């Protein structure tokens, strides 16, 4: 895959091509039957800014490849096919290479990393030209007490908060310049925190209306819909009824409800049923992030979830999912290890709880025995050895990066619960972990489903972002892994179908009408 960049500061894509059937027309003289003796041939301006020739064109529809060329002008595809005597300012010979639409990542966390480094190299180099942002905690609106916490995190990354609404975030990005295209949901958690903060309580009718008005404003500013992450506080405080109310707002704008399910392990069937109920009662399409059936005890049973989704589609609900092709997840360390009640409130409140020995005994029991509505990621991963630390900020803790939590506990000479609590206290509830909780068999069973597309659940990053530590490989390899392992090597899906899932299907899910296909009039987001 080759990356062709425009001038510095311009929005760019991965440029490569497909060709349209076109005919070059030549103007002649309507003259007296003879040419003036000293007349020179009229200069002919090139038809295209960029011409991609000799490629195997996989157009995003799922159809087999065909050979041809693609003519591009003013950032748009003009012609695709067997072009006759085409001329261009620049020509790329794609002989022996596949040419496809740019990939669309349906679940990205690049909202803030792109402010730090707009090049987006980890995504562009795997073919992603459009990123969908804004799961639960979107880049806007950011109001009230949340502004201080967001600004503190941004300054740690090397930037700062100077916007309030989602529209103002888009304007900031546009002024600053960045490489991939972006679109965003408005986060249900975001509007909750804006109005209520992090405390656990029911919103008043007036507060609920305020949340709806913020969603309405974000939709008018370009949001794709509303997105939730119901597994952790404060998003988990939203009831099904609350979410139906917010989803009804986006329905007025033709938006979508997207969700990280309330439970991805033993409670997955009920969590999918909740998402279906929201879609059916709010009359909106539903999209489920990182579809899986977590937990060692659930491995091999994902067909039951597939059947549940297919039955909803058969009833007429437009419900789709995305998947990342790895058997390990990636989350903040605190989300991976602590029961939800210990994640409520401010960072200082969380730290104070973890210093209490009685609380640690409760955490130990909850992890061992489970809680209603909560499945411990430690149990899902088969124990503490299934939790691998990927990022820590405190210099004294850097030695633990790349280690499993049972190994860290031995290094610290502590019980694993005491070790993780002490680590979180030192990190002020920061740090990230990779946890191995998904079956490879289930990945392969789900991938061919016609309503499944792909999302990295990663972000556009670079090695210079040292605060990331060692992120999950999905940040750099999601789409390459699908093509290399599941298409080329194991033949779980075909290449044209994989490209369809990464391009036109992803565009249809999110309502993007000018991307995802190699067709005249479409944006020239193209991979070679």
Task: Write up this protein.
The protein has 19 helices and 18 strands. The protein is of the alpha/beta class. Strands 1, 2, 3, 4, 5 and 18 form a 6-stranded mixed beta sheet that branches. A 6-stranded parallel beta sheet has the order 9-10-11-12-13-17, sandwiched between helices. α8 (268-282) runs parallel beside α9 and α14 (405-412) crosses α15. It is globular. It starts with 47 loop residues before the first strand and ends with a strand.
Question: How do you describe this structure in short?
Answer:
The protein is built from 19 helices and 18 strands.
Mind sketching the topology for me?
Elements: E1 48-57, E2 66-73, E3 76-81, E4 88-93, E5 98-101, E6 103-105, H1 113-116, H2 121-124, E7 128-133, H3 146-157, H4 166-176, E8 181-184, E9 186-187, H5 188-195, H6 205-220, E10 225-229, H7 240-251, E11 256-260, H8 268-282, E12 286-288, H9 303-315, E13 319-323, E14 328-332, H10 333-337, H11 347-354, H12 357-369, H13 377-380, E15 387-391, H14 405-412, H15 416-426, E16 432-436, H16 440-446, E17 452-454, H17 474-489, H18 495-502, H19 504-510, E18 526-527
Parallel strand pairs: 1-4, 1-5, 6-7, 7-8, 9-10, 10-11, 11-12, 12-13, 13-17
Antiparallel strand pairs: 1-2, 2-3, 5-18, 14-16, 15-16
């Amino acid at each position: 895959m080759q990356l062709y960049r425009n001038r510095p500061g311009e929005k760019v894509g991965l440029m490569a091509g497909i060709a349209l059937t076109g005919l070059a027309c030549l103007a002649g003289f309507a003259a007296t039957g003879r040419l003036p003796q000293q007349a020179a041939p009229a200069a002919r301006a090139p038809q295209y800014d960029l011409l991609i020739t000799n490629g195997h064109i996989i157009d995003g529809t799922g159809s087999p490849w065909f050979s041809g060329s693609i003519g591009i002008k003013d950032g748009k595809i003009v012609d695709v096919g067997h072009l006759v005597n085409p001329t261009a300012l620049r020509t790329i010979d794609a002989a022996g290479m596949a040419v496809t639409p740019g990939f669309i990542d349906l679940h990205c966390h690049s909202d803030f990393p792109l402010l730090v480094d707009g090049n987006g190299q980890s995504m562009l180099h795997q073919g992603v030209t459009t990123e969908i942002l804004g799961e639960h905690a979107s880049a806007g609106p950011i109001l009230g007490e949340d502004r201080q916490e967001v600004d503190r995190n941004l300054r740690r990354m090397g930037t700062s908060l100077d916007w309030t609404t989602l529209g103002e975030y888009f304007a900031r990005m546009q002024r600053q310049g960045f490489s991939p295209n972006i679109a965003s949901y408005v986060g249900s958690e975001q509007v909750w925190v804006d109005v209520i903060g992090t405390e656990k309580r029911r919103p008043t009718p007036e507060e609920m209306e305020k949340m709806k008005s913020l969603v309405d404003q974000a939709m008018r500013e370009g949001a794709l819909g509303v997105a939730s992450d119901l597994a952790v506080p404060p998003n988990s405080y939203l009831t099904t009824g609350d979410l139906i109310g917010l989803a009804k707002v986006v329905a007025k704008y033709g938006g979508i409800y997207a969700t990280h399910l309330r439970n991805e392990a033993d409670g997955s069937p009920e969590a999918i049923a909740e998402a279906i109920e929201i879609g059916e009662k709010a009359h909106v399409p539903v999209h489920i992030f990182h579809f899986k059936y977590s937990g060692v005890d659930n491995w091999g049973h994902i067909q039951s979830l597939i059947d549940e989704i297919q039955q909803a589609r058969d009833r007429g609900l437009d419900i789709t999912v995305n998947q990342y092709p790895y058997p390990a997840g990636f989350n903040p360390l605190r989300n991976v290890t602590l029961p939800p009640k210990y994640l409520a409130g401010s960072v200082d409140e969380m730290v104070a709880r973890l210093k209490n020995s009685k609380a640690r005994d409760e955490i130990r029991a909850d992890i061992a025995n489970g809680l209603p509505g909560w499945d411990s990621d430690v149990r899902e991963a088969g124990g503490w050895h299934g939790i691998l630390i990927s990022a820590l900020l405190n210099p004294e803790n850097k030695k633990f990066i790349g280690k499993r939590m049972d190994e860290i506990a031995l290094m610290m000479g502590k019980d694993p619960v005491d070790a993780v609590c002490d680590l979180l206290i030192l990190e002020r509830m920061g740090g990230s972990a990779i946890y191995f909780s998904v079956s490879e068999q289930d990945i392969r069973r789900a991938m061919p489903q016609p309503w499944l597309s792909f999302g990295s659940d990663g972000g556009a990053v670079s090695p210079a972002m040292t605060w990331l530590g060692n992120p999950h490989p999905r940040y750099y390899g999601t789409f390459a892994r699908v093509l290399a392992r599941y298409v080329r090597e194991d033949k779980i899906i075909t290449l044209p179908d994989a490209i369809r899932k990464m391009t036109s299907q992803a565009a249809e899910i999110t309502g993007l009408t000018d991307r995802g296909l190699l067709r005249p009039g479409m944006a020239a987001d193209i991979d070679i």
